[in-house]
Specification:
mainly alpha, 174 residues
């Protein structure tokens, strides 16, 4: 709890720097504030539509047997996604699904998802509401819905540290 003010300050600084970066790259003449002009802009709609489309295409490729059960194989999504641009009318090449859950399901299928769920069930017995580790895991899991934090090295390290803390806590409890 004593680190929360520092964490909030660092997160706010990161958000501000990201907004400045977006302003410089996409709308050099746009004032930074109010941001609602940016949110209602076409870049956000196009980005959202592109993410929804890539998720639809990825899940569509998982329907056939044995892909829904066993997946396509480790790290297949970036390689396979290159071929989808022309056949699925996508506007750009994708190296990630912008949703770690869909990408994991694409690569490992229902068997892989079940294995990870059992791992969390086993090691997650010590989690409780109000616990900072539980909140961190929930925040990370939410970020995985609309982004790809596992592929970003610093966030992947945070996920690894959370997993280590979770396993140590489970080992101490037993």
């Amino acid at each position: 709890p004593s680190f929360w003010p520092l964490a909030v300050a660092l997160a706010a600084t990161g958000v501000l720097l990201r907004a400045v970066e977006f302003r410089r790259a996409w709308a050099p003449g746009l004032r930074l504030w109010p941001l609602r002009v940016w949110v209602k802009g076409r870049h956000v709609r196009e980005s959202w539509n592109a993410r929804v489309r890539i998720l639809q295409v990825a899940l569509g490729h998982c329907r056939a047997w044995p892909h829904w059960a066993l997946g396509h194989g480790p790290e297949r999504f970036p390689r396979d996604a290159r071929t989808w641009v022309s056949e699925s009318a996508l506007k750009e090449h994708y190296r990630e699904a912008h949703n770690d859950y869909v990408e994991f399901f694409y690569d490992y299928g229902a068997v892989g998802v079940l294995a990870v769920a059992l791992w969390f069930w086993h090691w997650g017995q010590g989690l409780a509401l109000g616990d900072p580790i539980t909140g961190s895991i929930a925040a990370f899991g939410t970020a995985m819905l609309a982004n790809f934090p596992i592929r970003v090295a610093p966030l992947g390290v945070v996920a690894l540290l959370l997993a280590i803390v979770l396993m140590r806590r489970g080992a101490w409890a037993s």
